[in-house]
């Protein structure tokens, strides 16, 4: 795992497999464009919804529309990037049922790389773009300093890693029950929806849960408070605002451990 | 009972049983609906805290609306899917040719199957999240037998409108072979214009007036307004009329398009 040369080889395998799927999808070019534009619109609707909410109020949980755009965009870009690269793991239950996973196990490329690169869909880039646009608009209202710019970059990287961990960790449930893929959605897409809003709209017990037990608040909430120059409405100390990378590393390690356990105890469906 | 009626009942029963097989998926779905219900409730409570009578609702109304929305998602297959998705698959594989040979109308066959599916989803993914919502939040319930009856009429009408739209969409597979793009756009439209993301009462100006009479308003806004007592008396009748009108128009369009499609059916590779 720690060997950089092996990592580079795995990344290379990932790129090769996904390039294959991109070429395959491009064979139906009109359909690809329609799906890409559709993906852009469907995620864009979320933000139109927020914009309509702001037609009825001046602030949501004490945050302005531009500040919410920064939060929404930060979480959205992280989610969309993780979804683009590892989101396919959601289908692992289907791969198990179809016996595809067994085929993958005998190939000389790590299983996780194959599962994530399988049917790689470049059209999901539309979601990255949509969220980036909203984030960009939110950014124009930030009072920038070099450290805030750096923190924003770190936030996106850490947020992506956190969603990456959630996708992998919760998809592993399907090693045990192949037909409950939807539970993972509550944590991945649910986590994204949660962090699209200022956490100040939630009761303090919920925020405590999202900090200590299911630490999704580190995707964007804590670093954003620093970048936007806001005091923490719940009175958590300032250093929590720099903690996202630590949380991300811990969650990724945990997710990989769960993955390894899942694969170890996996028994083929026998069909 | 041995008429054509019993056949449709038989189809519906089989569909009900088919969906009830996947217990794991059902429990997972109920969990996910409940999580999203909690998130939306808190966000909208914050909106109503800042503007206590937005859209003519109070906080209890909007929280109830959120949970009714979660209950409707699978009951009317708001995102898409259900029996018409089976039809789309059969059009692509060519199996639809068999459907045309059956001594039963295709529209009636698939509608009966979708009703059976919907009945199962109402009892599982409709009722259970509503109970969860009722335990966690203060909800408003229909205020009397008339309101219950009006809601009981509004619910199947919502299903009919949604079925007709999904059926029309499935039939596009007769003309375009890859319907993924159209399906995606249709579910985006359904999510937004049904008021699942944001209640339609919050939509401003002429745009708000428009979205409240589009077919998708039948999905959630009208049944919810009937349930909440926002629509009572003639206003409730007008709401049910809107749903019935769209159901008639769209089912008529389904029947018409089906006749055109029947004439151009070519079994692929056959």
Automatic annotation (TrEMBL), chain A:
InterPro entries: ABC-2_transporter-like. The keyword Lipid metabolism does not apply. The chain crosses the membrane at residues 32-54, 69-87, 128-144, 150-176, 197-222, 242-259. Keywords: Membrane, Transmembrane, Transmembrane helix. This is Unannotated protein. It comes from freshwater metagenome.
TrEMBL record, chain B:
InterPro entries: ABC-2_transporter-like (IPR010390). Keywords: Membrane, Transmembrane, Transmembrane helix. The chain crosses the membrane at residues 21-47, 67-88, 146-169, 181-207, 234-258. This is Unannotated protein. The lineage of its organism: unclassified sequences, metagenomes, ecological metagenomes.
């Amino acid at each position: 795992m720690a060997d950089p040369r092996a990592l580079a080889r795995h990344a290379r395998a990932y790129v090769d497999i996904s390039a294959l799927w991109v070429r395959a999808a491009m064979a139906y070019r009109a359909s690809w464009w329609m799906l890409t534009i559709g993906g852009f619109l469907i995620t864009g609707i979320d933000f139109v919804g927020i914009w309509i909410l702001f037609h009825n109020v001046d602030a949501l949980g004490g945050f302005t529309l531009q500040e919410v755009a920064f939060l929404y965009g930060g979480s959205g870009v992280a989610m969309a990037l993780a979804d683009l690269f590892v989101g396919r793991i959601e289908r692992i239950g289907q791969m198990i049922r179809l016996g595809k996973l067994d085929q993958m196990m005998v190939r000389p490329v790590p299983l996780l790389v194959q599962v994530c690169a399988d049917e790689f869909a470049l059209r999901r880039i539309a979601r990255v773009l949509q969220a980036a646009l909203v984030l960009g608009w939110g950014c124009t209202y930030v009072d920038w300093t070099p450290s805030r710019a750096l923190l924003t970059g770190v936030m996106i990287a850490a947020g992506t890693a956190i969603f990456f961990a959630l996708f992998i960790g919760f998809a592993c449930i399907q090693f045990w029950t192949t037909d409950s893929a939807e539970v993972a959605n509550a944590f991945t897409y649910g986590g994204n929806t949660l962090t699209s809003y200022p956490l100040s709209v939630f009761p303090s017990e919920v925020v405590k849960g999202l900090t200590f037990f299911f630490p999704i608040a580190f995707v964007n909430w804590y670093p954003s408070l620093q970048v936007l120059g806001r005091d923490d409405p719940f009175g958590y100390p300032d250093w929590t605002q720099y903690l996202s990378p630590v949380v991300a590393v811990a969650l990724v390690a945990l997710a990989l451990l769960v993955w390894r356990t899942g694969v170890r105890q996996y028994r083929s469906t026998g069909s | 009972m041995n008429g054509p009626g019993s056949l449709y009942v038989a189809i519906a029963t089989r569909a009900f049983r088919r969906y009830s097989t996947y217990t794991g998926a059902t429990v997972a779905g109920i969990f996910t609906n409940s999580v999203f219900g909690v998130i939306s409730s808190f966000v909208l409570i914050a909106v109503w805290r800042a503007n206590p009578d937005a859209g003519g609702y109070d906080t209890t109304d909007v929280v109830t609306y959120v949970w009714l929305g979660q209950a409707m998602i699978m009951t009317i297959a708001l995102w898409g899917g259900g029996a018409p998705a089976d039809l789309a698959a059969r059009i692509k594989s060519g199996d639809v040719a068999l459907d045309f040979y059956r001594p039963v109308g295709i529209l009636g066959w698939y509608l009966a199957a979708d009703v059976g599916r919907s009945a199962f989803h109402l009892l599982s993914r409709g009722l259970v999240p509503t109970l969860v919502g009722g335990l966690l939040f203060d909800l408003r319930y229909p205020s009397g037998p008339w309101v219950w009856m009006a809601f009981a009429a509004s619910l199947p009408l919502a299903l009919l409108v949604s079925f007709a739209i999904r059926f029309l969409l499935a039939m596009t597979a007769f003309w375009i072979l890859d319907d993924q793009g159209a399906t995606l756009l249709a579910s985006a439209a359904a999510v937004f214009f049904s008021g699942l993301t944001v209640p339609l009462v919050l939509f401003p100006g002429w745009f708000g007036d428009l979205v409240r009479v589009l077919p998708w308003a039948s999905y959630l806004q009208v049944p919810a307004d009937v349930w909440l007592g926002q629509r009572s008396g003639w206003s409730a009748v007008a709401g049910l009329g809107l749903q019935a009108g769209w159901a008639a128009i769209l089912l008529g369009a389904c029947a018409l398009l089906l006749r055109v499609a029947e004439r151009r059916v070519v079994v692929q590779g056959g």
